[in-house]
């Protein structure tokens, strides 16, 4: 039985899926900490940014490991897609962009940057 060759988009999709799984687990941990420790709004926002960084780093690392060439590019693309999908879902669910342009750009930079670093270190 011949193995089916995997394509670059499938590797990227797989790394994105695993990034979102990691995000979900970390968000569960953050919600538990919120419940137990009565975290402030700033602490919650910092936790969300940390989750973005860890998830995009992980996705970029996986993309780079799987794709072997131009790792920084695939890692950055993984981070950008992660951010883009979050933004799209937020808009589709009617939440809009409530945090303002500066926080939106910060989130974009964190996602893309940590994806690039993850890809480079893979």
TrEMBL record:
| NCBIfam families tied to this protein | TIGR04086_membr
Q: Name one Pfam family in it.
A: DUF3792
Q: What keywords appear on the UniProt entry?
A: Membrane, Transmembrane, Transmembrane helix
Question: What's the superkingdom here?
Answer: Bacteria
Task: Decide whether keyword Transmembrane is in the record.
Answer: yes
Q: What is this protein called?
A: TIGR04086 family membrane protein
Membrane-spanning parts:
12-35, 47-66, 72-92, 104-121
């Amino acid at each position: 039985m011949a193995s089916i060759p995997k394509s670059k988009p499938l590797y990227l999709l797989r790394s994105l899926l695993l990034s979102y799984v990691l995000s979900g687990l970390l968000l569960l941990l953050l919600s538990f900490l919120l419940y137990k420790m009565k975290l402030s709004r700033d602490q919650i926002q910092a936790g969300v940014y940390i989750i973005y960084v860890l998830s995009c780093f992980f996705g970029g690392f996986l993309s780079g490991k799987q794709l072997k060439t131009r790792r920084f590019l695939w890692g950055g693309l993984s981070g950008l897609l992660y951010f883009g999908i979050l933004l799209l879902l937020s808009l589709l669910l009617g939440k809009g962009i409530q945090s303002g342009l500066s926080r939106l750009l910060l989130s974009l930079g964190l996602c893309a940057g940590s994806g690039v670093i993850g890809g480079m270190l893979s």
